[in-house]
Design a protein that fits this description.
The structure holds 2 protein chains of 2 kinds. Chain A is an alpha/beta fold. Chain A has 2 domains: about 15-65 and about 160-230, Ribosomal protein L1/L10, rRNA-binding domain (Ribulose 1,5 Bisphosphate Carboxylase/Oxygenase); about 75-155, Ribosomal protein L1/L10, domain II (Rossmann fold), CATH 3.40.50.790. Chain A is about 35% helix and about 20% strand. Chain A is built from 9 helices and 10 strands. Chain A has a 5-stranded mixed β-sheet. In chain A, strands 5-4-6 form a 3-stranded parallel β-sheet, sandwiched between helices. In chain A, helix 3 (about 80-90) links the parallel strand 4 (about 75) and strand 5 (about 95). Chain B is α/β, with parallel strands linked by helices. In chain B, strands 14-15-16-12-17-18-19 form a 7-stranded mixed β-sheet, sandwiched between helices. A 6-stranded mixed β-sheet of chain B has the order 5-6-7-3-8-9, sandwiched between helices. In chain B, helix 2 (about 80-90) packs parallel to helix 6 (about 165-180) and helix 3 packs antiparallel against helix 4 (about 115-130). Chain B is globular, with a radius of gyration of 33 Å. Classes of the chains: A alpha/beta, B alpha/beta. Chains A and B meet through helix 6 of A and helix 3 and helix 4 of B.
Chain lengths: ~230, ~650
């Protein structure tokens, strides 16, 4: 495989064997970014859990203090005044029958769907369309609620959902490289705190096994094992 | 993952295994080996929870999922293939029903908001469950697995009853492969698989994360998928870290060592006994004798595994049947809308040994059943010749046997004229000795049932034998013996088998069933494979006379070709043998001459000359020996080549 000039410069400036502190890592990633768009900061955490056991499932949501830097389009499925409330709060779309019909026909042009409990009877039937795209509203991620305004605001402000995959790894996007280093560090710390708090009681051994930070096209940097406990403080 | 403590099981008063302690770990890939009837299938059934352990406990890790492929098929009926597979993943059905129930409840307008909230939460749980099992990609996964196992896309919605034995087994296998089990138990999974599918299954198992326990006679398969060998030996289990082939080497060495040990022990016992007898009543030696007696009692017994027994099989001389035992005229057979046999016309001649081959589901079993008279045609005519007695050996032998009978009854009903003694001697040649003959058929292992069915077949004295996959449950050595018996069989034989090595030496005609057409090849399987693309295939057009004429002409041509081939193949070696023979003759006369010279007083009184002659005599002797060895080897090779034709 051809090694590009960009990769060569990355290889020169980065030591993949080294364990970086969060600050060092963010700094290095910012410095080595040489692409023509704004890269995202991505994080991968390997956990010592067996996700095949239901009681060791790690999943949840976290509101990043500085958002993800991405524009999130939100659909709120609610009746009457609640729909209006949602639109006021900044939802891109809101309504009931109109959208149910649209989704039935295959329209899913949104990033998040929020629904009120009384519409779930109808929304639940849309599993075939929403399920594969991960758009099904769920009270566990706060997307089934009567307080639609709050839900919309949170999602817009950078609330992300995460869960451990089959291999025991959590992936999340934690902001854009255009953010300041402090903002990125703060986002990452908040994310780590949430994960540590969600440790299942049945998980045995070391909980956070390894932790990597990377950017869309950048190198993956290993972060020191102390970082999660620093985040907790 | 699984802990087994003090497990014992007994059948007909004899322990299969006793006080077994072992542990199966997460990443174990185990080949379970042991002789026929040593309890391999029983052990798998116990692990799968189908049989309860007689004593002892089995501790399984919480929530562990075990998939079991039994040796004998469980017949399932009524559903389409795709739905059957899908509903076997029972978690899916549960999720769908639960979700429907909750949504229906939500539609009730009179619910309190707390109740509603609770239901919405439960729905949320279901969404999580779905994500966890990859609910929405399950259909594509099923498709991938079915295609991998050789199913055609148009088969997906066929009703399951329509699939033949080979495919039924693949359906079971598909379910197990899809269930994402933590432990997969496979009992003779390769019995019905063709080579492509076998390769696919091997790849699948290699990539699977589940622990694996396999029982199989297919050495290639076992070596590919396992890295540990668990041996049932002497009513106990032993682990051997290494592949099956490595284990076989180890076993050979161990058996030899054990034999030696047993021999030494016997010698020592004899010595001790002699000593005791001799000095028992001698006061001065009494102390020593007592100590020897103690020693004698303490000696451990060494159990040597009996040599793997082989069945001994020879078909009795059958009565002579008419010249054409079976004739088909425009025969049709349907199953529902499925045309399995259309417009078949052919004759089977006395002494024909026919292999029926074709892809799975082409109608091989149906054809064999029609020939054996187990099925009647929907239209057309099947006529049997004079004095034709048919006997049928089915693919699922186990189904045919009355499981409540004991072996002796099961066999004696086939031929009531024979005395018990005679029957027992026949059963003995099938390795059912002593009290074994009183075992109920239901407690027998798959291999043992096959042996009973073979014994029954032998007793019918049929002159037209129809066999459907007879090698399925037989181990390698039994297979070889059956093969030999069938080669020697003097009657007419129709045989279905996927095992090319097995049928090739037996048959002299091939019936190929493909897309509702029958092609007849006059030769063995090798000939068929080489001729497959040739145009000189006799297609089955219903004109019997022409076909027959063609057959005779073809037969002659083939025989001539074979002769030529044989001549070409053996020419070189025959020449070499001739040369060696000449050389041997020369040396032998030289040797005789030297012997005479050595006996001459002139020579043996002259030491220098005698020495010279002696050296030359020894050289000649050595050379002669070498040449004779060479000659023997060449002849052996020649025989080998000739046997191929």
């Amino acid at each position: 495989m051809k090694v590009t000039k960009r990769t060569k410069s990355i290889i020169k400036n980065v030591d993949v064997q080294k364990e970086y502190t969060l600050e060092e890592a963010v700094k290095t990633l910012k410095e080595t970014s040489k692409v023509k768009f704004t890269e995202s900061l991505d994080c991968a955490v390997r956990l010592g859990v067996d996700p095949r056991h239901a009681d060791q499932m790690v999943r949840g949501t976290v509101s990043l203090p500085h958002g993800t830097g991405k524009k999130v389009s939100v659909l709120v499925i609610a009746k009457g005044s609640l729909a209006e409330e949602a639109l006021k709060a900044g939802a891109d779309y809101a309504g009931f029958e109109e959208y149910i019909e649209k989704i039935k026909n295959g329209w899913t042009d949104v990033d998040v769907i929020v629904a009120t409990p009384d519409t779930m009877g109808e929304v639940g039937k849309l599993g075939r369309v929403l399920g594969p795209k991960g758009l099904m509203p769920n009270p566990k991620s706060g997307t089934v609620t009567n307080d639609v305004a709050k839900a919309v605001k949170e999602v817009k402000a950078g609330k992300i959902e995460f869960r451990v995959d089959k291999t025991g790894i959590i992936h999340a996007s934690l902001g854009k490289l255009s953010f300041s280093a402090e903002q990125l560090i703060e986002n990452t710390r908040t994310f780590l705190q949430t994960i540590v708090k969600l440790k299942p009681s049945s998980a045995k051994g070391q909980y956070i096994k390894s932790l990597y930070l990377t950017t869309t096209m950048g190198p993956g940097l290993k972060i020191t094992k102390e970082e999660p406990s620093i985040s907790l403080k | 993952m699984i802990d087994i403590n003090n497990l014992s099981i007994q059948f007909t008063g004899e322990n299969l295994f006793e006080n077994v302690n072992l542990r199966i770990n997460k990443n174990d890939r185990i080949a379970l080996v042991g002789s026929n009837g040593s309890g391999k299938s029983t052990f798998l059934k116990i692990l799968a929870g189908i049989l309860p352990p007689e004593t002892g406990i089995i501790v399984k890790q919480k929530g562990i999922k075990i998939g079991f492929l039994p040796q004998e098929l469980i017949a399932i009926k009524g559903k389409s293939l795709f739905n059957e597979i899908k509903s076997s993943l029972n978690i899916i059905d549960d999720i769908i029903t639960e979700e429907k129930k909750l949504i229906k409840e939500l539609e009730n307008e009179n619910l309190y908001s707390e109740e509603k909230e609770k239901i919405v939460h439960e729905l949320g749980e279901i969404t999580h469950k779905k994500e966890k099992i990859d609910f929405y990609s399950i259909d594509s996964k099923i498709e991938k697995t079915l295609t991998g196992l050789g199913f055609d896309e148009k088969d997906f919605f066929k009703i399951i009853d329509e699939f033949s034995g080979g495919w039924q087994m693949r359906i079971q296998l598909a379910k197990i492969l899809l269930q994402e089990n933590d432990l997969i138990l496979l009992d003779e999974p390769t019995n019905h698989l063709d080579i492509d599918t076998l390769q696919w299954v091997i790849e699948f198992l290699k990539n699977s994360k589940a622990a694996l326990i396999v029982v199989s006679h297919d050495r290639y398969f076992i070596d590919q998928v396992t890295n540990k060998t668990l041996e049932i030996y002497n009513r106990n289990f032993r682990f051997y870290n290494g592949s099956y082939s490595e284990y076989l080497n180890y076993k050979k060495d161990r058996d030899e060592a054990l034999k030696k040990l047993a021999k030494d022990r016997e010698k020592k016992i004899k010595q001790t006994q002699e000593f005791i007898e001799r000095f028992r009543y001698k006061a001065t030696k009494s102390k020593q004798v007592q100590s020897r007696i103690k020693q004698f009692k303490k000696m451990d017994e060494i159990v040597i595994e009996e040599e793997e027994k082989e069945i001994n099989l020879r078909f009795p001389e059958p009565g002579r049947s008419g010249a054409v035992p079976v004739e088909f005229r425009n025969v049709y057979k349907f199953f529902g809308e499925n045309k399995v046999i259309t417009n078949l016309s052919f004759q089977i001649e006395r002494g024909d040994k026919i292999a029926v081959i074709g892809p799975n589901g082409a109608g091989k079993t149906t054809l064999s059943k029609l020939i054996a008279g187990k099925l009647l045609p929907d239209s057309g005519e099947i006529t049997y010749g004079q004095n034709v007695f048919t006997s049928y050996y089915s693919q699922e032998v186990a189904e045919e046997l009355d499981t409540e009978q004991d072996i002796l009854d099961s066999v004696s009903e086939m031929n009531e004229e024979l005395t018990i003694g005679h029957l027992r001697s026949i059963l003995g040649s099938f390795l059912f000795r002593n009290d074994d003959v009183f075992k109920k058929v239901k407690v027998l292992s798959g291999g043992e049932k096959s042996r009973v069915a073979l014994a029954r077949l032998l007793l019918t004295r049929a002159n037209l034998i129809v066999m459907d996959e007879p090698t399925n449950h037989l181990d390698y050595s039994s297979k070889v013996i059956l093969q030999k018996a069938l080669v020697d069989f003097a009657g007419t034989l129709v045989i279905i088998s996927h095992d090319i090595d097995f049928v090739n030496p037996i048959v002299n005609k091939i019936f190929e069933l493909r897309k509702n057409e029958l092609n007849i090849y006059n030769g063995n399987v090798e000939y068929y494979l080489s001729k497959k693309n040739d145009d000189s295939v006799q297609s089955n057009d219903g004109t019997l006379k022409e076909a027959k004429k063609e057959t005779k002409k073809d037969q002659k041509r083939i025989e001539a070709e074979l002769r030529q081939k044989k001549y070409n193949a053996t020419k070189g070696i025959k020449e070499k043998i001739h040369e060696v023979e000449k050389e041997i003759e020369k040396l032998e006369s030289k040797k005789i001459q030297l012997e005479q010279e050595l006996a001459d007083p002139d020579v043996f009184s002259n030491p220098i000359l005698a020495k010279e002659k002696n050296i030359s005599y020894n050289e000649t002797k050595d050379k002669l020996e070498k040449l004779i060895n060479e000659w023997a080897e060449l002849n052996h090779e020649l025989e080998k080549i000739e046997r191929l034709f």
